[in-house]
Amino acid sequence: MNTGKAVRADLKVVPSHSSLWGRLLEGDRHAFAEIYEAHIDHLYHYGMHFCRDHERVNDNIQDLFQDLWLTREHLSPQVQHIRYYLISSLRRRLLRSLQRDRRWQHRDSWDGFEFEFTTPKENQLILEETAAEQKKLLQAALANLTRRQREAIYLRFYQNLSYNEVAGIMSMQVDSVYNTISKAIAILKKNLPFPLLLLFLGR
Amino acid sequence: MARKDYLSYTARDFALDEDFQQWVLQPATRNVFWERWLQQHPEKEADIREARQLVQNIRFTPYQLSAGQKEALWDAICGGLEDEAPSAPKTRSNWWQLWKYAAAVLFGMLIAGGWWWWQTEHTPAILSAHTRLGEVKTLLLPDSSEVTLNANSRLLYAGTDGKPREVWLDGEAFFHVKHTRSNQKFIVHTYDNVNVEVLGTQFNVNSAGKEVVVVLQQGKILLHIEGHNTSLALQPGEMVRYSKQDGDFTKSSVNADQYVSWHTGRLTMEDYSLADAAAFMERVFGKTIIVQDTQLLKYKVSGSMPIVYNADTMLVQLEKVFRMKFNQKGDEVWIQKK
């Protein structure tokens, strides 16, 4: 059963992490390199969706990994899911870094975590006019989602974090994560029977 | 898992269910349960298919670092940590303990049999080390020379005051030899007629395959080939390959980095073919690579990547680099075109 993996090429199957974490705490540099290799793509992707500022994302990822190594003796051995730990940490760092930067302070409503919704291949042979109209409708519907809601959807469906983890990262109740995703699914569901190609949210 | 009444679920309910999402997002994780459930309830197939589409078709704009950017970032991370010793301190301290132990023994011998010391004067210090598959060790020799021993290799060291320092190598190692004040020679013996003589320098010796390959990075070395009565002087960036089978040897100029960078944990790939990668995996991890379409072996890439001493991770990385499909069956790796 490999079809899903082929479609979502970004999801890699990585070896069990708890032992990797243990090795990191013991000062194993190979484990450190392995953690970097396994998570850098996801961290960068998250960072870019968060602020779309390559330099800032790069700097914060660099600090994150350096601190990870330097403070490894004080890290909790309890960490079960490394990606959850890394993304929470990167999120806090990016927030702090954005708050320090005045240019960003007026941009509460600034978008990010824009997603598109693709239809299965067999539905793609359609008239472009219909597609454009559908696209407009879906765009209008999805525009009702806030940035925070989109981020929750992103963390669940792209980063594959559990509802609990998403709630933890965003300081939300698990219920509201669930409701957010329910709302998005409802919007998408309404559009599913109709053929449509690509939909961009935001600009 | 909580018992859920999946029979009453609509497509939307499925799409919202965490367990169902998990199956769609990472099919390897929950497939047994869901495939069986679907078999038992074929009437739910349409709902399931629709729910799958809902979960699967949400796509986020891609942002991706290039391989070069990733590497630069990793170098920046490591650069900031430079104060720390880069080599594995564990191995070093083991040697140190061994050495302390040896010193203690020598001290005991000194007291117990001082006369014997007078007679022999030069008692050689003999040390040995080996690595298993997938393991690399950095050793600090008693003369302060540093040796990085690649996987599945063996090294024997003998040093006596006033006489040349000598090591016997089976496998591959990178040497950083300390020049001593007394201009004491350092000789690397392989078990295949090739001996390398140096004063102080950096070079790589690989006797693991059908050839003995010596690459000089810095300094100057003298190569003796037994049976040929020949001595070859090597300049930095030069390589000598000696065939164990027929005793032939050739000298050429190369990019030394490509042959020695493994000791700093990087794989330098310059016109690096799948055949080279196969040799690497076999050498370091004992994996046998099997390719049915031998044309694939000529497929080449250039770049570099960190070496991770974990066979699975390394295979995943190489799979990505060569854009091919690797299927692992025990110690065999079958490679196909993607």
From TrEMBL, chain A:
<dbReference type="InterPro" id="IPR013249">
    <property type="entry name" value="RNA_pol_sigma70_r4_t2"/>
</dbReference>
<keyword id="KW-0804">Transcription</keyword>
<dbReference type="InterPro" id="IPR013325">
    <property type="entry name" value="RNA_pol_sigma_r2"/>
</dbReference>
<dbReference type="Pfam" id="PF08281">
    <property type="entry name" value="Sigma70_r4_2"/>
</dbReference>
<comment type="similarity">
    <text>Belongs to the sigma-70 factor family. ECF subfamily.</text>
</comment>
<feature type="domain" description="RNA polymerase sigma factor 70 region 4 type 2">
    <location>
        <begin position="137"/>
        <end position="186"/>
    </location>
</feature>
<dbReference type="InterPro" id="IPR036388">
    <property type="entry name" value="WH-like_DNA-bd_sf"/>
</dbReference>
<dbReference type="Pfam" id="PF04542">
    <property type="entry name" value="Sigma70_r2"/>
</dbReference>
<keyword id="KW-0731">Sigma factor</keyword>
<feature type="domain" description="RNA polymerase sigma-70 region 2">
    <location>
        <begin position="35"/>
        <end position="103"/>
    </location>
</feature>
<dbReference type="InterPro" id="IPR013324">
    <property type="entry name" value="RNA_pol_sigma_r3/r4-like"/>
</dbReference>
<keyword id="KW-0805">Transcription regulation</keyword>
<dbReference type="InterPro" id="IPR007627">
    <property type="entry name" value="RNA_pol_sigma70_r2"/>
</dbReference>
<dbReference type="InterPro" id="IPR039425">
    <property type="entry name" value="RNA_pol_sigma-70-like"/>
</dbReference>
<dbReference type="InterPro" id="IPR014284">
    <property type="entry name" value="RNA_pol_sigma-70_dom"/>
</dbReference>
<protein>
    <submittedName>
        <fullName>Sigma-70 family RNA polymerase sigma factor</fullName>
    </submittedName>
</protein>
Automatic annotation (TrEMBL), chain B:
<keyword id="KW-1133">Transmembrane helix</keyword>
<keyword id="KW-0472">Membrane</keyword>
<dbReference type="InterPro" id="IPR012373">
    <property type="entry name" value="Ferrdict_sens_TM"/>
</dbReference>
<feature type="domain" description="FecR protein">
    <location>
        <begin position="130"/>
        <end position="221"/>
    </location>
</feature>
<feature type="domain" description="Protein FecR C-terminal">
    <location>
        <begin position="267"/>
        <end position="335"/>
    </location>
</feature>
<protein>
    <submittedName>
        <fullName>FecR domain-containing protein</fullName>
    </submittedName>
</protein>
<dbReference type="InterPro" id="IPR032508">
    <property type="entry name" value="FecR_C"/>
</dbReference>
<dbReference type="Pfam" id="PF04773">
    <property type="entry name" value="FecR"/>
</dbReference>
<dbReference type="Pfam" id="PF16344">
    <property type="entry name" value="FecR_C"/>
</dbReference>
<feature type="transmembrane region" description="Helical">
    <location>
        <begin position="98"/>
        <end position="118"/>
    </location>
</feature>
<dbReference type="InterPro" id="IPR006860">
    <property type="entry name" value="FecR"/>
</dbReference>
<keyword id="KW-0812">Transmembrane</keyword>
